[in-house]
Amino acid sequence: MPAAVPNGSMTMTMLPPAGTALPISTFLPATGREESYVENILRMNLGKVATLYMTYENNSDWNAKIFKGVLEAAGRDHIIISDPATGMRYLLLMVNLDYITFDEPLNYNLPFGSANNPVTRR
Questions:
Q1: Of 26, 23, 46, 44, which Cα lies nearest the Cα of 34?
Q2: Which domains does the chain have, with CATH numbers?
């Protein structure tokens, strides 16, 4: 629920920025299940090699760029990958992410982190 902030004689409702994912512990009220967000799926697949397709608007040098590396971390607004050949690490912003591919099956468990509901597609 958005926070109500007093502002003189009126109350303003503060909302998170557009495109902001909710915390991992967010549940769907009617079902009691956790919601599925990209960062949660990425966290279930840390250590796997991923190919990330990114778009950078208004960039004349490179509008689109492809990154490939080992998935090290994922947050609400970022992904960290590393290149095993060079040791270089990349901090990539989710706002630029178009899509991600993996060369192996994904771990996908809902609710997040639950061992009693494994779903792996091959």
A1: 26
A2: 34-119 (2.30.30.100)
